[in-house]
Amino acid sequence: MIREGRIWIFMIFIFIFAANFCTMTEATLNVTGSEFNSELIKKINVLLNGNIKDFDFQIRIKPKESREEMRHRIDQAIENIERGENLIEFSPEEYEALVQKLSQR
User: Fold this and answer.
1) Which residues of 48-70 are buried (b: 16+ CB within 10 A; e: fewer)?
2) What is the mean pLDDT of residues 63-86?
3) Where are the alpha helices (DSSP H) in 1-105?
4) Cβ neighbours of residue 5 under 8 Å, at least 6 residues apart?
5) How far is 23 from 14, CA to CA, in rounded Å?
6) Residue 98 and residue 101: Cα distance in Å, rounded?
7) Once rounded to an integer, what is the mean pLDDT over residues 67-87?
8) Domain boundaries, the chain
9) pTM for this entry
């Protein structure tokens, strides 16, 4: 029930912006494999008033990360910071340039 509520909140968000799609830049919906089904696609289509040709859709599939894998990844990142290894450094100007480049994708 909670997950379904989360999806409906997103659907309301999409509906508000779909009605004025000229102001919508982008929306992201994160769902689990069990939530991604034909019913979800139908609901999105209804909320977009069937005008799916006016939108681009992107689906990204990523494997689930177990709690242990996530903890290991975070611990490894902390160790890297403490040792000063595998770090990326850039100036504020370089950061702004990177943000501009990534936002144009």
Assistant:
1) beeeeeeeeeeeeeeeeeeeeee
2) 91
3) 2-19, 38-47, 67-83, 92-103
4) none
5) 12
6) 5
7) 92
8) 2-54, 67-103
9) 0.38
